[in-house]
Amino acid sequence: MSSLNKSLLIPLGIFIVLVAILAGGFGLKDPHFLPSQLIDQQFPDFSLSELNDPSRQLTASDMRGQVVLVNVWATWCPNCLVEHPELLRISREEGVPLYGINYNDDPFKARQWLVRHNNPFQFNIVDNKGKLGIELGVYGAPETFIVDANGIIRYRHVGPVSRRTWEETLGPIIELLKTNPDRVKG
After folding, report:
1. I want to staple 44 with a disulfide (CB 3.0 to 4.6 A). Which of 135, 142, 154, 172 is the partner?
2. Burial 13-43 (b: 16+ CB within 10 A, else e)
3. Residue 163: partners with Cβ closer than 8 Å, 6 or more residues away
4. Is residue 2 part of a domain?
5. CB neighbours of 60 closer than 8 A, spacing ≥ 6?
6. Which pLDDT tens digit goes with each residue over 102-122?
7. CA distance 66 to 181
8. pTM score, two decimals?
């Protein structure tokens, strides 16, 4: 083999490995499902300000006692605006508490955004440094977590929440958690 042919083998090998990795990623059944190390784990501890009342410190214990949706959102996130009408509908019609994590954002802009587009959240956690998001393994906004009454993360949805996402995935998991919490395992 000539030295020219040998020097082409390394880039060719790297190319083949990259194609195999990408092909495996494209083979995922649900592109919005990303595995999380936190499924079936306690929601991370935190102590952060509430968006509309910065003097109020929220903690993970504020989310316990019932099944809740926790939505990671930001004003800079175009898909957060896409999912917002469905979050408003869920908060009005579905009887499930919806808590927000305002992620890597300016709290002033976030408050203005919620006034302009309406606020579906019972409260919003200010995560303007992104620390809670990092602990949750957030890739970006929007992401939505189902947290059970004991504060255990049961499901993670990456991307905008649509009516279909609610009807086919989030709603059924929440109903199952409400009626038979021991049957749901991430």
Report:
1. 135
2. eeeeeeeeeeeeeeeeeeebeeebebeeeeb
3. 86, 89
4. no
5. 42, 43, 44, 45, 46, 151
6. 999 999 999 999 999 999 999
7. 11
8. 0.79
